[in-house]
Write a structure and sequence with these properties.
The chain is of the alpha/beta class. Helix content is 37%, strand content 21%. It folds into 2 domains: 2-151 and 186-208, Rossmann fold (3-Layer(aba) Sandwich), CATH 3.40.50.720; 153-182 and 211-247 and 263-267, no CATH class.
């Protein structure tokens, strides 16, 4: 199995590459600006997803069986929306299995709970870009898998975990929101599920998040306790503007895949 991870230099991308190599897959990855440190057995390729010609040249050279698009341009429409469109069209032209990583940011929170059949109703620029990318994938590559996920946590090296440490140490300003609720997922579980989808030919929408719905503050407290920090030092407060509660209902997806998606209360428990 030969897989290309678009956005392999990111947090999720690096975990995908580690696990694909451990499974014996032939692995390649793209980066845009700074070339990451070497991962044994991974071939790195500098590609700007805004450039369709670069993607075509790379796919003609590598001929991967599957592409996992884990790139993150945040609210940059040219990367997150248009770039995903170009990855999708290139995958279709070269006959590659496509797994596209999307986000719970495509939802407004008006329903609280969202299953795989729910249509996007974004309220942020990032959510709108992700929703546009989903639309492109589903229209142009109906055989592809689109995987919505939530806040991604690791073993101390995710952005949210670093934020908790910086807030606890007083080296960063801000608060952990008490009224922004999501369903965190462990990066290892998410990567395993995405690779499982890449191996399969199952099309459609998949929800890959943990079963525990937690506010940013509640999640921060769990991280602090795991890491031996004083949770009482964490600043808490409401988000300016509208509170947001988005719970991905993953029951249908979890029944269809072997990878078990753990809740944050489980994977952040003290050991």
């Amino acid at each position: 199995m030969k897989v290309l991870v678009v956005g392999g230099s990111g947090f999720l991308g690096a975990e995908l590459l580690r696990r694909a190599r451990a499974a014996g897959w032939s692995t390649a990855a793209t980066y845009c600006s700074s070339r990451p440190g070497d991962l044994p057995g991974v071939s790195w390729h500098r590609v700007d997803v805004r450039d369709a010609d670069q993607l075509d040249v790379l796919l003609a050279e590598l001929a991967p069986d599957a592409i996992i698009n884990a790139t993150s341009g945040l609210s940059d429409w040219a990367v997150t929306a248009d770039g995903s469109f170009r990855v999708t069209t290139a995958a279709v032209r070269h006959g590659c299995r496509l797994v596209h990583v999307s986000s719970d940011a495509v939802f407004s929170g008006s329903r609280v709970s969202y299953d795989e059949s729910c249509l996007p109703d974004p309220v942020t620029p990032y959510g709108a870009a992700k929703a546009a990318a989903e639309t492109a994938v589903r229209l142009l590559a109906p055989a592809a898998a689109v995987a919505r996920t939530s806040l991604i946590i690791g073993n101390g090296d995710s952005a949210h975990e670093r934020m908790v440490h910086e807030l606890n140490a007083g080296t960063r300003d801000g608060v952990l929101f008490t009224d922004v609720v999501r369903c965190p997922v462990h990066v290892g579980d998410l990567a395993a599920a995405l690779l499982e989808l890449a191996r399969s030919d199952r099309p459609g929408m998949f929800h890959l998040a943990g079963p525990d719905a937690l506010s940013r503050y509640e999640l921060g407290v769990l991280i602090a306790r795991r890491d031996g920090l004083d949770a009482g030092r964490l600043p808490a407060g409401p988000k300016e503007g509208t509170a947001l509660e988005v719970r991905l209902d993953c029951a249908t997806t979890q029944a269809d895949i072997r990878t078990r998606l753990r809740g944050a209360r489980e994977f952040l428990q003290l050991t």
